[in-house]
Amino acid sequence: MEEKAHLWSxxxxxxxxxxxxxxxxxxxxxxxxxxxxPLTAAEHVELGVAYERKGDLDLARREYERALQKDxxxxxxxxxxxxxxxxxxxxxxxxxxxxxxxxxxPGDADATNNLSxxxxxxxxxxxxxxxxxxxxxxxxxGRQPALLDTLGVLRMNVNRPGPAxxxxxxxxxxxxxxxxxxxxxxxxxxxxxxxxxxxxxxxxGELRKRFx
Length: 212
Fold this sequence. Notes:
Elements: H1 2-27, H2 41-53, H3 57-70, H4 75-87, H5 91-104, H6 109-122, H7 126-138, H8 145-157, H9 161-177, H10 194-210
Helix pairs in contact: 2-3, 2-4, 3-4, 4-5, 4-6, 5-6, 6-7, 6-8, 7-8, 8-9, 8-10, 9-10
């Protein structure tokens, strides 16, 4: 009888011991730490630009994508991500990013220009790119040597040699005389960089070869 009573007392104590052990075990679990990203979207873009200048395109892409995770309507991150894809010759992805950038800023000169080069390099979407580029160049601030050069290449690729030469000639004149119309980020009145002038001359030479 005494033995049965002893057994019964252990049946009462055992659950209590288990609860104490479980409670003690929970208290020894590591605390979960959630790390937050301390950088703003703009800071991620700045970091991406730094990587891009060093030629680290994959790291630049990562930073632009992180910026877009914070702000999907960040135009500069979208445009720069497109530029990374363009440099990596992933023209389809570049085109997607430029189109998204143009949704944020319809008719934007930089996004339209870079979309045009994605079309030129891939050979796809030339007509659409030209239709977008024409109003940009004829609009306010559009008389820029680089934009006119892009327009000339587009026209050349749709077999319009006369209008292509007109665009190249005007680009060359503006480039040499510094008569470009000022726009955001561009100082009007200053001669364009030597590499831009060489590129215009190369494209004019290509035009003459295609259409003697």
